[in-house]
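Final report, closing paragraph on structural work. Over the funding period we assembled a curated collection of sequence-structure pairs, and we close with a single example.
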Amino acid sequence: MANLAAPSCLLEATDIRKVHGTGPTRVEVLRGVDLRVDAGDLVMVMGPSGSGKTTLLNCLAGLDGVDVGTVLVSGEDIHAMTDARRTSHRAQHMGFVFQSFNLIPVLSAVENVELPLLILGRKPRPARQRALELLERVGLAGRAEHRPPHLSGGEQQRVALARALVAEPTILWADEPTGNLDSETAATVLDLLGDVHADGQTLVVVTHDEAIGWSGTRLVRLTDGQVVYDGSPDAVLPATLEGLEGGESLERSEDGSHLVLVSA
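Its predicted structure, as stored:
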């Protein structure tokens, strides 16, 4: 087990096991997963559909329970917390971006973004200012008063990203953040995630998209509920290059921290 006294360790999961169903319908979704997330990581969790990626994210973030194992968040087991304590911890220390956006349709973009701060008891004026600043950061300053039904999919996902960042989370979780987007819009969202990471945000991103899975500082690959690789994307890069389409290449970012898919 890693030294949890080290200040860089934000989360450590040990022997995570999760079962769905009973009897003939019993399925072992997670089978002894170990995973550590350090401050400043951009962890890309990859694997085919049904490999357990989303279930793992939900268990790590305390959105779903575990049957066996521990998830230590800053040294405290999130699954040993009371429901109220766990909910409070997520609200204060975690941000979430989902494939389906999960915006409240009757609220404007800025109201959606500021809502987590209001729930935490922050004063309305600074909450509104913080929300507007983040909307400007994601390129939506001119869409602040628009409601989700009047925003494109890419715009809704950028609002969701701003909302996830509004409370300055310790860890930002993203589950298939580009799954409902076209390639051009997905690239915009990925650029924003990269910018957020460059500013020091720790992220864990779940994706089945091989084209974006190599953009992290760490790659974790799941197969049948087990981690089959956890390390640098560079170490498995040669096999990945064979799967690229004509005119595509993988190059290092300017700061050298991660790989970027480049189209000719």
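The helical segments are 53-60, 83-93, 109-119, 124-137, 153-165, 183-198, 237-241. Residues 53 and 246 are 29 Å apart (CA to CA). We thank the funder for supporting this effort.
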